[in-house]
Amino acid sequence: MTDQTRDPFVIAGVEYRSRLLVGTGKYRDMEETRVAIEASGAEIVTVAIRRTNIGQNPDEPNLLDVIPPDRYTILPNTAGCYTAEDAVRTCRLARELLDGHKLVKLEVLADQKTLFPNVVETLKAAEVLVKDGFDVMVYTSDDPIIARELAAMGCVAVMPLAGLIGSGMGICNPWNLRIILEEATVPVLVDAGVGTASDATVAMELGCAGVLMNTAIAHAKQPVMMAEAMKHAVIAGRGAFLAGRMPRKLYASASSPLDGTFF
User: Fold this and answer.
1) What three-state secondary structure class fits 68?
2) Euclidean distance between the first and final Cα of the chain, in Å?
3) CA–CA distance, 89 with 50 (Å, rounded to integer)
4) How would you classify the pairing of strands 20-23 and 210-213?
């Protein structure tokens, strides 16, 4: 398998070994969250600031007790925000709670039914946050033009959806994703829609820099086992991408040459 040290994954100037990013929601309890994230091998862990206590409520359990910032890179996200203004405010709150932390995941949603990104509000928020000194990883649609605009604006990573959040539908439009990857000037990570290990592998084989997921692990029948499966799926997909697959052929091709046979 590929030596990860010769294939660096860099976000905002920081190098990581794991290309799998995971969320912290939807688990049964804090202990399951801890064990599953540990099994995933992830180093970047995203946290919904509007839904999770990371210190703003001192009388409630603190998620940072099970995913300590000295072990993981905490990626605050703006899940639950439907306007640019709310998203910017949430990122600034996260920066205060995490002692000046600049890396954030921006997501501005269009509606509660689809959780599809509102790209108009996303562009507005991204512009403000980049100017305000944040390192912005941005959840967006699979529109190559919007992805290009977000990268040009200064976002450190573009994260198009593979399918709707929590749908488990896998990569619904690989063609748009391929265009985004061809034009990419920053890391492109699939965010949302992954349902099982093969979905993660396909994303990596297409050339994605990484995959972010939550529901696919947390809602599996055995979340810890699925977390480990996803770890290996991402590694395998990256290795296959770097190795380069064989060309597709319409007809068979003998595995062993016929020249020089004894009959």
Assistant:
1) coil
2) 38
3) 11
4) parallel
Looking only at the bridges linking them, the beta strands covering 189-191 and 210-213 are parallel
> Global pTM?
0.91
What are the Cα distances from residue 25, in Å, to 11, 30, 36, 86?
23, 10, 11, 20
Interatomic CA distance for residues 210 and 64, integer angstroms: 24
Q: What is the pLDDT of residues 30-48, one digit of tens each?
A: 999 999 999 999 999 999 9
The b-or-e profile of 102-136 (16+ CB within 10 A means b, else e) is bbbbbbbbbeeeebebbbebbbbbbbbbbeeebbb
> Positive or negative CA dihedral for 41, 43, 46, 52?
positive
Tell me the catalytic residues: 105
Q: Where are the beta strands (DSSP E) in 100-173?
A: 103-106, 135-140, 157-160
Contacts of 17 (CB under 8 A, 6+ apart): 4, 5, 9, 41, 43
Residue 215's identity, in one-letter code, is T
* Helical pair 119-131 and 144-153, crossing angle rounded to 10 deg: 10
Dihedral over Cα of 70, 75, 80, 84: its sign:
positive
Q: Is 255's pLDDT higher than 80? A: no
Pairing of strands 9-11, 14-16: antiparallel
- Closest by CA to 211, choosing from 141, 161, 175, 174, is 161
Does residue 262 contact residue 256 with C-beta atoms inside 8 Å? no
